[in-house]
Amino acid sequence: VKQAAFGALSGDVAADELWTLATIEAVGASAARPHGTTGITVPHRCEVQTLVNADATMLEAVRGRRVAGVGGMAKEATLRKAAALHLQLGHVDTYCDIMKEIGDWDAALAAAPAVSLEFWRQLAGERAAVLSKAGGELE
Questions:
Q1: By the 8 A CB rule, do 49 and 43 touch?
Q2: What secondary structure, in 3-state letters, does 65-90 show?
């Protein structure tokens, strides 16, 4: 009843979404959106991480494929976008793994200390092994 009155008095087509955001503040996301986050126009701050993580996971699906698909982004560009989303979420280790996979060792090594010094050492050792195997110079 309150939601209908709010919608009628506001006169705005986005009134339902505003009501939902206010309800999320009052009772939480699961109670306000019992059917999940499908069809959200404006996500609440507590829903953003879930939505961004879902986007990153979807983009990562190209990892096992040779080609991203006709008309789609190239595999490297898709993985870079997934890596950037993981970095925004604070999943630095996943970011480093993806960057390593696409061959951007510098980006992976630059971010690795944010995970841990041990993680950075391990990644640096892997890079040294790859360079050594390829006959490259260790800088």
A1: no
A2: CCCCCCCCCCHHHHHHHHHHHHHHHC
